[in-house]
Amino acid sequence: MNKYVSTRNKNISVSASAAVLSGQASDGGLFVPEDIENLKLDYHEVISSGDFKEMAKVIWNHFFDDYGRDVIAELVERSYTGKFSSDKLTPLVKVGDDYVLELYHGPTSAFKDVALSALPNLLTKARDMNEVTDTILILTATSGDTGSAAMAGFSGVPGTGIVVFYPEGGTSETQRLQMVTDAGSNTAACAIRGNFDDAQNGVKKIFREIDHPSEGVSLSSANSINIGRLVPQIVYYYSAYKQLLDMGEIADGDKVDFVVPTGNFGDIMAGYFAYRMGLPIRQLICASNKNDVLTEFLNSGHYNRKREFFKTTSPSMDILISSNLERLLYYVCGEENTAKYMKQLEAQGEYTISSSELAEIKGIFTGLCASDDEGRAAIRKTFEEEHYLMDTHTSIAWSCLGKYKKKDGVPKVVLSTASPYKFCSSVLEALGLELTGSDKTDMEACYEYTKAPIPKGLAGIWERPVLHSDVIDPSDMKQYVIDKSAQK
After folding, report:
1. CA distance 139 to 223
2. Which site among 95, 319, 374, 424 is 20 to 30 Å from 339 CA-CA?
3. Over 70: is that where the pLDDT of 407 sits?
4. What is the rounded CA–CA span in Å between residue 91 and residue 86?
């Protein structure tokens, strides 16, 4: 049976279900499978199993082996049946000579839906398996998409509640409205006066300081620090490979490059797990915006969060502390060095890995970045030449693809993380059209110009009443959680 250990101390060891239930290790580390070599799996076993849901069953069983196959089958069906607008869940589209993996066909039109449709089911089952009777209060920091997807996933789920913290003015208006209009009786969204890193640090601090914010309430996380968030994302890398095979674009065994727009390193870490499991991946290209802390790290080995923070048109990537990078460090650097680097990051705001550790990381990862202007140019050019509309995060990855591109016959897949309508004002501006001054009318204008369909979940968002209007300082987050927990 798989053992999950803290990235900072292997002696903290739990079952898969307990790792999902806890969200984060007691020492502040993240839970990972102890030995990644045990995760080796013939990729044919996955891609030959059937559609997305059948592949998910194989992978979930591989990681969450204490749940049992019948339970996993039930949880997968419950997570995905009837929730996505595409039968393939994450369809692959050819755009020019390259490919886009569309991850935004779920309830909130973002890639987070793939994992956050699953996590509530994994977590509530883990609660029963571990004989926990407490209400599970989910704490989540979001730079935009996680919040609405988590609220949608946990809304009305028995035995759970969720509090989402997001940076005031740090999301698109559409993202904000998705959160503050959520009508779940067990959901809450709260803005903080700060950026995403302030929200994320505040949530981590709460986990370190309190286990039970009130009697009968335990804490867990829906961020990608929770291994239950990360594992479902592995599936779409296999799905992309299977779709390339089915389209006749590759032969069995051919390698593929993936270009991933990411700030918190979770989406691309799922790709690393797929690679280490045995999926034929040549390179994982980490695409960053102007907040290019990951680009610097992947090129130099130096991680430095002591830098200016920029608000960009790709706000979900406006992050300077990439939590999931710690999981990669564990597998490359070992637990002792990982703990050392994390202490340095907390105390000094920076750390530098060794040259040999960097060389190993560079064997699979490439770090590139693109500016807002480059992203805008990518949106306009791709629409004009291919009549394909992408959002501001996908366009950063597309621009990075142009910088990386090698004419070597290896297919290159860009992960598209959100519908363009979640950032319609920025998209409209990129297309060279005048902004109307309203996200609602910008959305309508974007549709009139492009005829790209507006997702159902976004079309009526403007008419919904605002139900969550709290704004607090980061220093007040702990008390806010205590107060909310007492209401559960």
Report:
1. 8
2. 319
3. no
4. 7
